Prior knowledge:
By secondary structure, the protein is an alpha+beta fold. It is built from 8 helices and 13 strands. Helix 1 packs antiparallel against helix 2 (about 20-30) and helix 2 packs across helix 6. The model is unreliable at about 110-155 and about 170-180 (pLDDT under 50).
Amino acid sequence: MTRELADLxxxxxxxxxxxxxxxxxxxxxxxAESDETLDIVxxxxxQAHVPNVLLAAVHYLVLAGLDDPLADVYAGRSEADPxxxxxxxxxxxxxxxxxxxATRHTNTNEVGRSAVLGPALTDAGESGSVALVTTDSxxxxxxxxxxxxxxxLVALTCPLxxxxxxxxxxxxxxxxLATYVAAPLVLxxxxxxxxxxxxxxxARLAASGGAGSYTWIRSAGALPKGLVLSSGGVISGKPxxxxxxxxxxxxxxGLGHTATKKFKLTVT
Length: 268
């Protein structure tokens, strides 16, 4: 379990700190190498296993007037390595930190910071994850229960309107990553209207689900002569011959997922 926590702290350093906070990057990597510090985290409730809770607990003690060299590093008065100093603070203040981890939580009202907390998982469409749907450009959410392996949601980010990523802690206490994907991509146009010979025609195809913008192509068959399908999903033109065109259309979303449907378009 300590190894799992160490991996979580290394992941946090690499994905959440990095250039954003070199100080916390160094601290996280030092914690990952300290079994004694990880034991403090392991003994806390599962929701406190997230790195930013311990980081906040130590910062809380520093702001409360802790007399320690780490306070000078945090204040910019020292260029000492913050990693070992942070571990020393945890060792010297184990009981106080344990009490904070057991009773306190972290929160941020700064939207930009919240947006980058989620783990960067890819290939979500093939992971068999729980569907999560957004509307109004992400301002409203259809309720979804957490997957069975998660008991505490700690991060959520939506790089695309209908594609979100989340992280949490497992029932056993170790770090767990879960991906929430948009509803399946579906081509929703039921049938096409009849076109008139030598008359302007326009029909827009529609789809739902998926993530990001849609791109449309004719994947098989042929449209009636004089008509074309745009990448934006609009069939338009002036038909030059009566008859029935049979063809298939493919729509692709921003993550590369596709849906295909057969159509018939009659020209009279």
